[in-house]
Each structure stands twice: as C-alpha cells, then as structure tokens.
Amino acid sequence: MSYAEPTRIGPLMNLKPHYSGCLTQIKALLQEKIAELLQMKNGIMTRMASSWVIGLAFAIGNVGVIAADGAAAAPKPYAGWINEWLREQSQSWNAWDIGVQNRVRQEFKLGAGVAPATDFRRYNVDNRNIYFLYRVRPHVGYSANGIGFYLEGRHSGSIDDDRGPRNPEADPMDIHQAYITLGNTKDLPLSLKLGRQELSYGEERLVGAFAWNNIGRVFDAAKITLRQENFSVDAFTSMLTVVDQHNLNYPNPDDWFSGVYATTKFVPKNTLDLYFLSRNAGRQSYTAANSLVPLPSPRDIYTAGIRLKSLPGQFGNWDYSIEVMGQWGHFNDPLLPAGARSLRHEAYALVCQGGYTFKEAAFTPRIGLEYSAATGDGNPNDGKHGTFENLFPTNHKFYGYMDMVSLQNIHNLRATISMNPVKRFKFSLDWHAFWLADSSDHFYNAAGARRAATLAPTPGTGYGINPNYSSYVGSELDLVATYTVHPAAVVEAGYGHFFRGSYIRQTFSAAGHGSRDADYVYLQFALNF
Fold it and tell me: Would you give the distance in Å from CA 399 to the centre of its chain?
C-alpha cells in the first residue's frame, strides 16, 4: 500500500486532500457518530465519549487527506509523528526511537462475556458484558554501532467490566519492555537481546505477543540471533512475566520457556521454518501471588515443528502454508486424584491453508480456506495426556474474533474472503465451524484453559467431560472492517455471531440452564505518535 508524501508542519502534518465520493460518505458518518457520542449522558458511554470524540475528530480531520490518486513510489516505513519530526530537525535523531502508542476499544459481548464456564448458558446467569478498554504505551529506544536499548511503559485500563477485580485486561502503569541489544552489524551478524521483551515466531500460533489483549504478553529473556542471506536462527531462554495488578510485573522463576527457531529460504519459492520449543514449569509454578491468569501445573512439554510458506508472487495469484507440530514430555493434571496426576504427554497439531487473490478484479478480493486441528485426550484415566499444549499464542487472529477457541482438542474449518473496496479500507468476512477432536476431553477457551473446574459434572448442567455428547461445538461468522486514516491512525470495527451446536445444547440441556447463541461487537481506534 502506497501513501502520498505529506507536507510536514512541525510534528503534525498538513496533507494535500484528494476527496472522493466514498471518503465524503465516511467523513459524514464519522461526524454523525461524534454527534451521537456528544448526546450520551449516562452510563459507560458517557465515560468513553471523550476518548472517542478525540479519536474520531482526528479521523475526520484526515479523511480525504490520505487518498492520493495515481501510482506513487513506495515510501519508507512510517516511523511515527515524533520520530519523523525529530529526524527532520537533525540526522542525529536517526538512531533514536521515541513515541507513544494509544488504543481504545469498546466491546459488547452478549451470551459469552464474563466467565468461560457460563459461555452460551441462557438461564440463571448474567453473561452479558459491555466495557471500554484503553491502553497507552510510551517508549524510547536507541540503536547505533551495534549497541542499543529499548524501554516501553504501559498503562492498561478497563471501565465497567464485569470480569471482576482480577480483570485479565486491566493493569496500572508497568514496564512492558526493557532490554538492551548488542551486535547485528555488517561485520558481526550475531546479536544479543537481553531483558524484558516480546517473543513472536511464525504466524504466532504457538508464540506471540498477544497484541489484541489490552495488556499483551512479554518474557524476561535472553535471545541470540544469527542472520545470514538465506537463513536466520534465534536461540532463547526466558521466564514468562506474571501480570500483577498491585505490584510491578515480575518473571515466574518456576515457568521457563526456551527454544531454537530457524527461518530459511533453502526451499525454492518458499520460506521454511524449523523449530524446537521447551516449556518447563515446576511444582511452584502455579502458586505465584496475584497473577491475573491461571498459571500452569507442573509440566515438561517439548514441541518440534516445521512450517512451509509460499513466497509472495511465486505461484501467481496463489498462496499457501502448512505447519505440522508434535509434542512429547510430562504433564501433571491437578484435577486427577493424588498419585495419579503425573501423565505422559504426547500430542499433535496441524494447520494448512491456501488462498487465491484476484489481483486484476475490482477491490482485489482474496478467498481462502484453512483447516486447523489439534489432538485431545481420549481417556483421562489411562496415564497419558493427549491434549495439545497451545503454549503462548495470539489465537485471536486464527480461530474466530470472538475468542472462544484455542488450538487444543479441536477441528476448525475456516473460509475467508477479504477485499479493499476503496484505498485504505479493508473488509473481511470469515466463517468457522468447530468440532471437538475428542468428546472425552474438555472444550478449551482461547486462553487454553478448561471451561470447567471438574472432570465430569452432572449431564446438562455445565462443561466437563461427557463422551456421549456430540462433538459439534458450533459455527462462527465474523465481519471486520478496517480503515487506515493515516499511517499512524487506524479505525477498526467488527461483529461476530456464534451459532451454538449440539455439544453446547447438550451441555446446558438440564432444567434451569438452557443454551443460547452469542454475539460480539467492537469498535477500536489506534493512534501512534
């Protein structure tokens, strides 16, 4: 995507407008939404109105500004308003990276918005949740002559959220990243990154920064990287950072995550990733105080994987990727009786996808098909554990925007279509169908946790293990629209509906329970200085 070169006035920019009918309509719509927000007088919408007014007012000021007609040379990556302005003042600022990331998001969840154990239940429960998220991440970094540092703070908040005092998306000002770097020069292609940092590999199906979450995910890690023309290799060891609302976040010394990840171009027209990952959680790993998310039971899980992905344009309009993952090791199940909790772990997962882009057609549509599968546990009492360990993923991107599913005990068929109706506007429509890989195992949520605190509840009264249930969980339809107002400002809106299947109907079939479909609506604005 190419952008018109702006004329800069101080740290902000006055760009030459190029109006079109579609952009005029968008501008009118944004003005209408501001008027609606200004009329809101009570409840959560009043508290969120000022933030949205600021964001939408900025968007209106730039509508039409960013729609230059005609082809233009691809610009250099946009470094942010502060960086762009500083670097215009003096070349000495080129080594610095200074900025602030701001994001707000309003979410409406009906039928599955409070606790995973009550997802899709109809009666005698309140599982509706309407809340407002905000996040600010200021940062400063420096890199020159093979030496660098990066420091990033974060303040995450949630308003009118019914998920309780231990909200997984609220954490006052804390340190998100803080690391130093050494090496990575022309004479030394080897580099070291040491400190608190994000880890992200492949598509983030196993290891990701989880940016959709209002807090995100970081590790206290040491990582060595070797980069050559046709390959790169990372070797790292780390401790997962525990989010503590009452104190500075800290690493969990009983939960270690290490690995080697290599990306190569040895297969013509493709990239080939090879990796080995190790998660080792000790007996004290799940006793850390004040953690916002459940910590792991003792386990030693080893994952080996291979991922093949086509390079852009090498197969005409076609693209594809396939990833195969295998696991082995040891797993301790706290729900089993004492003396029977230590289980031998063996699990597998597969992801294959392909698509076709109509490059010459209007709106440049792409259609795609994807299949994801991960094993479940066929028998909780046989001394073996077959549920795939999803590790530290960014699942939001893959298994439905409603965040109901993880890559554990699941078959997921996904059909997708995306297009660009006007410049800087993207529209996508996804359909998912979900089946449990084994109904003798649990239905795991997007965080990889069981939806039940018991193995076998009374049939029809809640989640758990019931081999007699259907394996069909349901289907999900997602509609997402994204508008890039400016390289530093993006508006995104989405709607999802989950159609419950036989498994969910049977789970809440008892009197006084009942089941229902679920809905999800969100509106997000991100602005980076």
Answer: 11
> Is 69 exposed, middle or buried, given 0-12, 13-18 or 19+ CB atoms closer than 10 A?
exposed
Pairing of strands 472-486, 425-436: antiparallel
Instruction: Confirm if 414 and 420 have CB atoms less than 8 A apart.
Output: no
Judge contact between 324 and 275, C-beta under 8 A: no
SS (H, E, C) 9-66: ECCEEECCCCCCHHHHHHHHHHHHHHHHHHHCCCHHHHHHHHHHHHHHHHHHHHCCCC
Q: How far is the C-alpha of 432 from the C-alpha of 414, rounded, in Å? A: 4
Most confident range (mean pLDDT) of 54-58, 85-89, 306-310 is: 306-310
3-state secondary structure of 81: helix
Please report which confidence band the pLDDT of residue 164 belongs to, taking 50, 70 and 90 as the band edges: confident
- The encoded tokens of residue 278 equal 């190790």
E-strand ranges in 315-424 read 318-332, 342-357, 366-374, 384-385, 410-419
Per the CB < 8 A criterion, the answer to whether 260 and 238 are in contact is no
Q: How far apart are the C-alpha atoms of 264 and 236, rounded to whole Å? A: 18
Which single residue is written with the structure tokens 């394996």?
A: 471
Residue 22 makes CB contacts below 8 A (sequence gap 6+) with 421, 422, 425
Q: Cβ-count burial of 42 within 10 angstroms (0-12 exposed, 13-18 middle, 19+ buried)?
A: exposed
Angle 436-127-463 from CA coordinates, rounded to 5°: 30
The Cα–Cα gap between 326 and 357 comes to 31
Pairing of strands 384-385, 342-357: parallel
Architecture of the domain spanning 77-528: Beta Barrel (2.40)
Q: What 3-state DSSP class applies to 287?
A: helix
- Distant-in-sequence, close-in-space partners of 133: CB < 8 Å, separation ≥ 6: 103, 104, 105, 106, 107, 156, 157, 158, 159, 169, 214
User: So where are the chain's domains?
Assistant: 1-76, 77-528
Give the C-alpha separation, 529 to 138, whole Å: 9
Q: What is the pLDDT of residues 464-511, one digit of tens each?
A: 998 999 999 999 999 999 999 999 999 999 999 999 999 999 999 999
Q: In terms of Cα–Cα distance, which of 206, 200, 257 is closest to 374?
A: 206
pLDDT above 70: percentage of residues in the chain:
84
Q: Which residues contact 76 (CB under 8 A, 6 or more apart)?
A: none
